[in-house]
Amino acid sequence: MCSLLIQAATLFLTLATASLLCAASPAPSPTPKDITTVAGTTGPDDGLELTLDIDSAEEECGTTAPRLNGLPLVASNYGNGVASGQIFLQSASTRDSSVRNVHASWESTCLKGEASMVSVRLEGVVGQDPLNDTSGFTTSFKQKGQPRVLRLQDSPVNRLSQDLCEDWLASDGHGPSIMPVLSEPHSPVDILLQAEYAQLAQLQADMELLHEQVHSTLRNIMSLLKQKFTACSSMQCVWKTAVGEVSPIANLLVAHFKHHNKLVSGCREGDAQSPCSTVIQDKTSEEQLMIESESVHDDLDGAHITPAASTPTTQPSASPQPTTRAVASALPTYVQAFSASSFATFASATPSAPSHHGLPHTRPHDGQIALQRKLGLAIISLVLLVIVSGFVIRAIIKFRDPRRRAERAARWEECRTKRLYRKAACKHKWRTFWKNLCTRKAGPEEYEEKRATLLEHDGSAEDDDGGLQKEVRTMQNATDFVRDLVQAEEGQARHVRSTDYSPDGFEPAVLGGDVGSSRSSDIAPSYKTDVTPPPRYEEELEGEMIVVDGFRYRYTPSNTDDTPESSIVDCSPRLSLETGRSTILTKDTRD
User: Fold this and answer.
1) What is the mean pLDDT of residues 496-511?
2) Which keywords belong to this entry (predicted)?
3) Do 89 and 97 form a contact (C-beta atoms < 8 A)?
């Protein structure tokens, strides 16, 4: 149970710091320091309470950063194996328990992979005059297994270097007391789950930040390469630019497609920790890596990372490495900068930059170098193939026979016409199929329905119009009978037509032509008079007919007073204004 509590415990170092008096702080005493006097305070009434949390880790100099008053010490600057940053924290005063906003700067490094070292320098309290004296603390600690503080000093060191490794790795025997946080007893599974959940959240946040940085860098590189190719005005310039940018393009593609699954915190598995900082590395390897880095930057034509303006600190200006861009956080109480895991990305561009606690950056793997070479050769071969193919196509177009060109154009036109005809035929066939399908489906049903409707309509019409048809026929028979009676009185009687259908059984009488008025006793008296029969139509025509050369002409008086210009009879078969009024009858017609 005790071992579980030790693994779950978090180290709290409550330090009364940052004397705010204008008077000089007392010089550090060689005697052992306790918690209340470690940061150079003059008494319990003029200090600030600081809490340094150190989590247990599986390895020293891991990715788990310590926390100062609950805020993680995330690096915003990195150089020469030393991580540094700025932080705004809230601290309670030991005098009146009021909360104050404190501005502090810090530095950290890894001591030969065996321990970590943190130096905090208090810059001042927000809203008050800056401190005249140096105030802060420096400590070295171990995270593996049970967290343990090796040394604690009541002032910050001016510069973290390799000379301090031996001194801060050894314990002075008067370390401060450790107060572990004892929580309620939990099962080992709950403890592991909480630790994994916390690590997962941290990794997700780091991954999002890394994705944003990778995409931004890729966009910048692509923009620069595009500008460089756009500036070319000839194929020779494009070819030279492509040959000169083979290495950056290959690195870009490798960085985009290759998954670095063998890298752990900036180092490959199996690599040992560097001794305290990268200054102790072999000078030959360092110079070679610097030359490679400079060549890559020269190829990129000035694509570099511009450092952001940050608050001036007491960090020595002799650091030869450039700083990365600081990313400001939205939290109101402090300024959180670059994530510690982002140094793995920056390490790919700066070979001498290790991870948060000084993890070294190793040389590229042999397989990666071979892949870059193969990729470069493939790109060069592809470019050459495109250029040669272009020249061949242009030569064929320029020097081919015009007759063959015309024949080829005719064949293409013929094929195009056939294709259009096939397409039109296919469309017509498809439309006809759907039309026939729809008609075939609805035709028999509509035909039967219409036939039944017509039959029903005919039957109803016959039933409704039977009486009307009977009356119409009776009226026609009566009219014929009266007309026959009148003709009989005039001597022009004729046989009345007989009808096959007589619904009333009535048959009209048949009168002969010699029947006189004395024999019809049924006729009214007004018809019993001797009337001269009217002249025949043929007799009237005979008096006005003139026969000339076998043609019979009938005179028709003109309605106009003018006489024709000629008295000669026009025998032309074409009708004129004068002859159009005469009726021409030939002998054949007369016979």
Assistant:
1) 46
2) Coiled coil, Membrane, Signal, Transmembrane, Transmembrane helix
3) no
